[in-house]
Amino acid sequence: MVPADVVPADVVPADVVPADVTRQAAGAVQYSADTTCSPYTSDERIRSMTIKHVGVVGAGLMGSGIAQTIAQAGYDVVLMEVNQELLDRGLARVHGAWRMLAGKGKVTEAQAKEYGGRIRGTLNLQEFGDRDLVIEAIIENMDEKKKLFSALDAILPAEALLVSNTSSLPIIEMASVTGRQERVAGLHFFNPAPVMKLVEIVRTIATSEATITTLRDFSTSLGKTPIIAKDTAGFVVNFLLIPYMLAAVRMYENGLATKEDIDTGMKLGCGYPMGPFELLDYVGLDTTLYAAEAIYKEYPDPAYAPPTLLRRMVQAGRYGKKNGKGFYVGVEQ
Ligand code: CAA
Catalytic: 32? Predict the structure, then answer.
């Protein structure tokens, strides 16, 4: 094997570039003098920017959880929705979580109040004019996302980053409608966002190293562990998780075991916190179906083909915990 230090700089994959980065404090990044492994000639191109003001579009389960996490970490957050009812519901979820944490003694009343002072809701996208970073967490519909990215591109400061929390749609397609492709990436949180420690940073073919560095530092400052994924359907986690959940539905559909036994099997046999059917209800059957369809479109492998039962459940309006109807919730046992 050829040692890394004799590989010509221009053939080293971009993924290994930040290896020589020394982090001193959140937002402050220094590079060692040794740039042997870096294809970049100037530190300027990989220097991170400072994030202070964040916008989150979409106050659903994910958007509100992301906004909560970011406000708790000390950032100023504006949370946007399309109507007052959805906005109120999202903000109530966030404030309810802080009350729950205060009730458990995990944060003080003063802290909960301080967090609350850092988040405000809006119905007006124009209020994002001073944001350093905007996270899109709206419905998994490419046309809607492209409309939003195009509108945000016109409003945000030139240097601001624009990221999507999509679980499976191509980020580059959203970037393509903006004039800032190098500052567009995926930033994929996991449900429940305030609790799950992982964030996937999705690098498109156009995302700059500076954007990746900034998002790594930002994720770390939230108490999350970032991993880097390429802009391929399912990224890292859903590429493995979705076929696992689909296989469980197929097992149940084919009468190989009850859903309860499949769940017990995976919880007690493998130590998973939830079985696949509990997780399907939790994540959302519709969300799982959309993710499976997106992955199957890119990789037409039967492992990613949504089973008929999952389609029928979604067609019946059974989305899981989010609307109280799923494999377990709202169903006669
Ligand atoms: N803010 C802060 N903390 C919160 C919180 C919130 N909004 N909600 C819950 N918590 C904390 C609770 O205070 C609790 O802390 P303690 O244990 O210290 O008291 C902890 O989180 C666990 O909460 P609960 O006690 O209510 O529930 P639990 O112990 O049954 O755990 C769970 C719930 C964390 C969801 C656990 O069952 C789990 O990890 N399940 C698997 C979830 C999973 O796999 N998520 C990924 C889904 S895939 C995805 O999201 C990607 C995609 O694109 C589809």
Answer: no
Distances (CA, A) of 294 to 169, 238, 239, 242: 7, 11, 10, 11
The pTM for the full model equals 0.87
Candidate list 167, 168, 208, 219, residue with the active-site label = 167
In the structure encoding, which two tokens stand for residue 239, read together? 């590429």
The upper half-sphere exposure of residue 56, i.e. CA atoms within 13 Å in the direction of its Cβ, equals 33
Q: Measured in angstroms, how far is the CA atom of residue 193 from the centroid of ligand 1?
A: 8
- Catalogue all structural domains in the chain, each as residue range(s) with its CATH number: 4-46 (no CATH), 53-230 (3.40.50.720), 238-323 (1.10.1040.10)
Summarised one tens digit per residue, pLDDT across range 174-215 is: 999 999 999 999 999 999 999 999 999 999 999 999 999 999
Distance CA(26)–CA(29), nearest Å, equals 8
Cβ–Cβ < 8 Å for 45, 20: no
